Amino acid sequence: TAETSLRPLFGRRLVTLAPPTLSDNTDDYGRLTWTLQQHGERAPFWAGYALLRSLPRVLREANWQVAVELAAVEGATEIQGVIPASGDLKGPFGLAVDIGTTTVAAELVDLATGNVVATAGTYNRQAAFGDDVISRIIYATETAGGQAALREAVTETVNGLVGELLRLRGLNPEDVRAVVCAGNTTMVHLFLGIDPTYIRLEPYIPAVNMPPPVRAAELGLAAHPEAWVYCLPGVASYVGGDITAGIKVSGIAAAEPLSLFLDIGTNGEMVLGNQEWLMACACSAGPAFEGSGITCGMRAVSGAIEAVRVLPGGFEVIYRTVGGEKPLGICGSGLIDLLASLHQAGVIDRGGRFVPDQESPRVREGSEGLEFVLAWENETGTGREIFVTQADIQNLMRAKAAVFAGIRTLLANVGLPLEAVEKVFIAGGFGRFLNIRDAIAIGMLPDLPLERYTYIGNSSLKGARLALLSQAVWEEMKAIARRVTYVELSVGNRFMEEFMSALFLPHTDLSLFPSLGKERD
Amino acid sequence: MALTGLEIYKLLPKTNCKECGQPTCLAFAMQLAAGKTSLEKCPHVSEQAKEALGAASAPPIALVKIGSGERVLAIGNETVLFRHDKRFEHPAGIAITVADNLPPEELASRVEAINRLCFDRVGQMHCVDLVFVENRSGEPATFAAAVKAVKEKTNLGIILGSENPDAVAAALGEVAAQRPLVYAATAANYEKMAALAKQHGVPLAVRGENLSDLADLVNKVVAMGAKELVLDTGAREVNQVLADQTQLRRQALKRFRPFGYPSIVFAIDPDPVRRVLEAAVPLAKYAGIIVLDTVDPAEILPLITLRLNIYTDPQKPIAVEPKIYEIGAVTPQSPVFVTTNFSLTYFCVAGDVEASRVPGYILTVDTDGTSVLTAWAAGKFTPEKIAAALNESGIADRVGHRKVIIPGGVAVLSGKLQELSGWEVLVGPRESAGIPAFLKQFWA
Asked: Quick one: which residues bind 5-methoxybenzimidazolylcob(I)amide (chain B) (predicted)?
């Protein structure tokens, strides 16, 4: 079906024009657009000055057989080039880019076939100006030249990736004819150089949720200067185009069952709904599950502890690392395991506090209270111990409580119970080993049958690629973004009440987690 | 029961046209469910949906307005038994009695005393609302003259307290334009009273001997065309008042139409303390109007305060008062911590300061009840606001030093805060759990 639905935002259409005669004296441009329309291309058409100047000669030299380069722009079709059909035509190529707050990923896509020909990822160089979107907005608005610095940083990051991708395939920037970016609202503002000041100030209004496409040349992007750069449409200040992509990729907007999409990252965006209605919020879970803000936390890369078991009493620990390397730190999935396991082993109580007077040598006094040693210095790749502190655990408790409270608040807004959720799609950088069972055990995810859960990985990048390859998907995403109702969690105190009730393992209301009770029995 | 947002949404046109002022139809449905907007705002809703929604969203308790001009009292439109379920909508009116047989000067000075029952609470003036003119003389002419005198002395709403239709008719001749409440229609006089209320377009109180008697009487009065009613169950003992008020509200919420009106109660105990308590119970428990026979400000102030508190919208952030808190036996050498007024944040800090066994001051900054990092993110915990709190709270008068400890999470604020406030800023630990260790190290 990928072949039949392939209708990218930029494409070449091979057409043969009927040569003019005395009885058919239509002008060259009219002849071209009429022919395009006969081939099902979308009116209105428009073309640049340079193209018109050379059009008569090009058409005749090509003997009326030409490849027309077409870009879909805001419901119209731009004719970017007319070249002889006989030439050696490779590509054209497009880029799908996921501009994450922490990491940026890109795919080089052959727009003629729809195939991904190369993939690359790196860190967002904006990190030098702050780890989270808020610090970056503050830097952009309160430092002279801050906004420009952040724009340059992300542009350099993307250009670096593009350069790497093009080198792999022996291509030039001019071969990239369309770019689709997915990012949260703040990332899109900073990338386009749009003032982000009011995103973070009450009542939290972004400059634009659905930015119109911008020329690559205007953004200084390494691509054909006339290539359009499209940013996926967003919903509100803290629910951006990356989440619209998630809605599309998970398919929740087109299906009957009530579904929940969760992006378990710093902003903690989530979407509830089905084909009839969609509702979204951002619970600001914080970066704990991305490994940030935790003493020995790290991303899910080689050497990260991604699964842990603490045996009863807390004397022994079994863990597994990404790539089977010596451990360097612990990533999100490992932290979820750890929290569940420390509680089951009796090391921490339901409030997440260390149980005092323990005999385990792994529990010791640190500078900020008690801490638990996961790996001794002789086992690790760094020669330093890996441990979690009381403050780390409180941090994780808040992160998991925010996620669960967000889910409960969304459901409460439509008067539905947790059990009404028929499918749950999880996106986020957990690597392969997100343990749903443990995520339920700590009270982060609702206690639903495991078969209702699906992990869908980086839905943001995938959504960008789908839009790049299909004008229909691009339009669909705009329609989706318009349909989503944004729920502001800071209004009213339901979220805060839910949040505080969720600051326990798994929750103050154990009846919400019936399957855990069964396990204990 | 009220419809959920989703049930309402299913009846809306789903155009997402934004003409109602909401970004989507679902957002509009959620506002409707919360009672924060009205269906008329939607220009595209079908007649069919209007009917279905109108019946479901019509308030179970009618809105009744007494008085005219600025001081009009609106009561009713309530939708819940407990304020935390949504909120109590319209604060109960407090009425003070005036006997019609008082000598003119005494009557005038009593009304003046009532006018002065106004108090400044959290920066706003809160007053009693109504004057209950009692026809103790039994004479229509005396009553009408007293009502006229009251009208000239006050712009508060008036209750015509007489069961004599002739007296009420005479008084209405003086004050009908001020929309007084007629008190009361009873089994003996309801036909004449209802006719008077209908003729002058004024609200009418209906008094029964008990709940079932009241329900019968309301049906009769309604059948005669009186629409704006206020209910009196006849109870005068506080335990019976509590039971009756609860039944009125509970049955009204179950859509028992005869009880779908606000109520009136009397606090008449001769002992002032008991009187105030007698008024406080129905204030918390659903009464629409509470009548007292006192002009003593010391009795009215606690009731005004209680009313303000009970009718506060509970859908607000969970916050502590922004002020200076003392933990332990503080001295001028004690450390000063600054944090936000989010209650969870405050209690974490307070608990850990206490655990350090070093007495200290905690200065909470008003951040609309948001946590340190949330307030920082939303620009509500700024160096300017903290500096203002340091300068205006009076903390400078309580300590001999000029050092303030800020949360480690907002270390970035320290430079500017130091500059703005003139205080030396110490950056504390990121987590309040680190306060005891921090104090040991940095606060000798």
From this structure: 339, 345, 369-372, 432
A9, A37, A61, A225 from A83: Cα distances, Å: 19, 18, 10, 18
CB B392 within 8 A of CB B411: no
Q: How many domains does chain B have?
A: 3
Q: Compare CB distances from A416 to B6, B27, B380 and report the shortest one's residue.
A: B6
Cβ-based contacts under 8 A for chains A and B: 85
* 8 A C-beta contact, residue A442 and residue A340: yes
User: Tens digits of per-residue pLDDT, A50-59?
Assistant: 999 999 999 9
Report phi then psi at B32, rounded to 5: -60, -45
- Is the CB of B378 inside 8 Å of chain A's CB atoms? yes
Is the residue at B421 inside a domain?
Answer: yes
Task: Please check whether residues B174 and B272 belong to one and the same domain.
Answer: yes
Assess if residue B241 is contained within a domain.
yes
Print the domain residue range for B408. Answer: 324-442
Q: Which residue has the tokens 């205080």?
A: B423
Number of other CB atoms surrounding residue B212 within 10 Å: 11
- Based on the fold, state whether residues B139 and B71 are members of the same structural domain: yes
Taking only the tens place, the pLDDT of each residue in A381-391 is 999 999 999 98
Question: Which residue is it, tokens 């009196």?
Answer: B232
pLDDT tens track for B373-409:
889 989 999 999 999 999 999 999 999 999 999 999 9
Structural contact between residues B43 and B21, judged by C-beta atoms closer than 8 angstroms: no
Shortest Cα–Cα distance, B28 to chain A (Å) = 9
* ipTM of this complex prediction, to 2 decimal places: 0.79
Contact A284 B374 (CB under 8 A): yes
Q: Per the structure block, which two tokens stand in for B113? A: 């005393």
Question: Is residue B151 a part of any domain in this protein?
Answer: yes
Same domain for B273 and B150: yes
The residue behind tokens 């990356």 is A242
Q: Give the other-Cβ count within 10 Å of A382's Cβ.
A: 14
Please judge whether A485 and B26 are an interchain contact, meaning their C-beta atoms are less than 8 angstroms apart.
yes
* Nearest CA-CA partner of B168 in B187, B149, B184, B150: B184
| Residue found by looking up tokens 């001997």 in the block | B209
